[in-house]
Task: structure prediction
Amino acid sequence: MPTTGRYTPDVPIPDGWEQTSSETETMFNAMVVTVRTHTTVLEDTRLRETIRDRTGMDGTWRFFFASRLRFRPKTGMSRTLSRYVTERANDGFVSQLRERGFRDVAATDSRRFAVGKSEADLTQYRAHVVMTTDAERSVDVTAEGCLAVWPTDGGFLLAGGAYPLTVEDGVLDGTVETLLAPETHREELLEMIRSVE
Result:
């Protein structure tokens, strides 16, 4: 369990991935309660570099993030609070996808998901994003992502990410599509969520 005052989520970094950002911010500060969050973002740099070297197309193909949301003083957990945090977290995740250039973002599934000794609310999404090559040729990518939210000592943990499902890359003779492994990407994303503490 996290110790008092610990904000940073414990996020193991898989081989081929790199941490791209780590930020702490105060989400809400009033006389009664302070809400702070620390977010760590990772990117699959191995896949990015492989696709860039073969096609000239540079961009983030797979990313992962984890956030720890802490309340000071500690707040008693309730279904109402959990529902509120989950709804706000999903709104934030959709906004994050849109900021990364995703369009037509839509939730496709919602279920309970085992994380350690707890259970998370897991929501799955489908979206589209256009990637361009160094020759200004564009390809349409269908992507899938998910977000998990679960209570922890003194707050909540949020974890999720996105990966490509299919690529309409006829202009590149199918090169990108041969590098994708959606089923493997999905299982790795879920395993990364399970690893967050």
